Each structure stands twice: as C-alpha cells, then as structure tokens.
From TrEMBL:
Species of origin: Actinomadura decatromicini
Keywords: Oxidoreductase
Protein name: SDR family oxidoreductase
Gene3D superfamilies for the chain: NAD(P)-binding Rossmann-like Domain
Organism lineage: Bacteria, Bacillati, Actinomycetota, Actinomycetes, Streptosporangiales
Matches recorded under InterPro entries: NAD(P)-bd_dom_sf, SDR_fam
Family in the record: Belongs to the short-chain dehydrogenases/reductases (SDR) family.
One example GO MF annotation: oxidoreductase activity
Length: 269
C-alpha cells in the first residue's frame, strides 16, 4: 500500500461488501486508513477484505444490520474501543426500490420502501459513529445520494424523495455537528457504469427499462443514461472512491454541508 492521504485514519464503511462500499474501502486502505467494513453478507465482506489484505492494507469485517440501531451502536463502540476513535464513516448501504411506476399504480409500501430504508440506515449509522468523532480529532461522515434528488421526471417518487431526504439530512447534520469538528459531505453519483459487473443491484434496477428498449443493462447505461449527461458518460466506481478519499482527507478540511456532484453533468448545480 503506497498512499498516505488517509494515513492513521480509522474508517468505517457500512455496506462495505457492495460495489461502491467495496471500491471505497479498497481506496481508503490503499491511502493508509485502517478500514472496518460492515454489512449483512459475510462472503461479500470477506471478498473485499481479501483484496485489501493482498495489497498490504489493514481491514476488519463485521456482520451488521444497519436497520438495527442497537447493533450499529454496539459495532461503532467496539471499533472505537479497538482503534481509539472513528475518523471517517460512509454509509454505502443500498435499498432496492421501484423506478417507472406512476402514482396511480404505486402502493404506499413500495413508495415508502426506499424512504424508510435509506433514511433509517443513514440515521442509524450517523447516530452511532458521531459520539466517537470530533473533540480535537476531526471527523468526517460521508453520505451517498442520487440525481433523483433533483430530477423532475415521472415514475421515481419513492426514489426521488429518499434521495432528496439524504441530501437534506447531510446539510442539516453538517450544521449540527460542525461545533464538534465533524464534517458531513454528500456524494451524488449517477448510475455507475461498471457497477453491474461488480455485483451491484444496478443490474436488477435497470433490467426492466433495458429490456423494454431491447438492450442489455450495460447498453442501456452506456447508450441511454450516459447520453443524458454533459460528458456523455457515467461515473466509474474508481472515480467515486477516489473522490470519497479526498473528501475524507485533511486536504478537504473546509468542505462540509454540501453535495459533491458526480453525475457527469446530468445535473448542473
């Protein structure tokens, strides 16, 4: 491991066995962080941990249900006791949600699934790590959103509301935790071009519209969604992970309370 951007930082990544969480964990470890990855599926966590260990990084895994506040708080306390504190936390947990169903056909349960799932996970993880940050040791909480937070298109009600909620949560929490020396920053990627190959739920999410267009999911991403961006391309996992590492580092020490737009220009803030 050769990087030093996050040297001596303790980083917790919830959803660390997923596509984005795993990519961020690998880059954090490469940059010198001691990485703690948590998630529901031990096999996926182990796969990421093997990659990190093979490159000489330091990593520990734990099975944690982020919807169980008690379990998340217990895990965060254990990490802090082991490492001496928590410097960086990222909630990269994904919740499968509907896209394409209009209000007339949308049930309350399907509408609320991403809202409750995404926001409860973000609340629980933030509440668990915050007491172990700051107070002379700068802390960073990173959140993940989606362009749906600002897109005015039909058929994504639950998705859009959950994304907008995550961005509002980020801004308000940044104001609350600033006196403790804790920065809170949102990252808003678009659909990630190489996420399906990495095992992301992106493949299942975009399968229906891709099939309707007579395309594979990869074709739909590259020739469909990508063409709606200014750059005519979607972000890659490595670009999200590298951005997260910079934002988590002391080099971004005055960045807080904002959303970093990695949509390729699908949205222009």
């Amino acid at each position: 491991m050769s990087g030093s951007l996050l040297k001596d930082k303790n980083a917790v990544i919830y959803g660390g066995g997923g596509a984005i969480g795993g990519a961020v964990a690998r880059v954090f470890a490469r940059e010198g962080a001691r990485v703690f990855i948590a998630g529901r599926t031990q096999a996926r966590l182990d796969a990421v941990a093997r990659d990190i260990a093979a490159e000489g990084g330091t990593v520990e895994t734990a099975q944690v249900d982020v919807l169980d506040l008690g379990a998340v708080e217990k895990h965060a306390a254990a990490v802090a006791a082991t490492a001496g504190g928590i410097d960086v936390a990222l909630n990269a947990v994904s919740v499968m949600h509907d896209q394409g169903t209009p209000l007339a056909d949308l049930s309350p349960d399907v509408f609320m699934r991403p809202i409750d799932g995404f926001l409860r996970a973000l609340f629980n993880t933030s509440k668990a790590v915050a007491p172990h940050m700051g107070r002379g040791r700068p802390g960073v909480i990173l959140t993940l959103s989606e362009p749906g937070a600002k897109l005015a298109i039909g058929g994504i009600l639950g998705h859009a509301v959950s994304a907008a909620g995550k961005e509002a949560f980020t801004r308000v929490l940044a104001a609350e935790l600033a006196p403790e020396g804790i920065r809170v920053i949102g990252i808003r990627p678009h659909a990630v071009v190489d996420a399906p190959a990495a095992g992301s739920y992106t493949k299942d999410l975009f399968k229906p519209p891709a099939e309707a267009a007579g395309q594979s999911v990869q074709e739909f991403l590259e020739s469909g969604l990508a063409q709606g961006t200014l750059l005519k391309r979607l972000p890659a996992l490595s670009e999200i992970a590298e951005t997260a590492a910079f934002l988590a580092s002391d080099r971004a020490g005055v960045v807080t309370g904002t959303i970093v737009n990695l949509s390729g220009g699908a949205l222009v803030d």
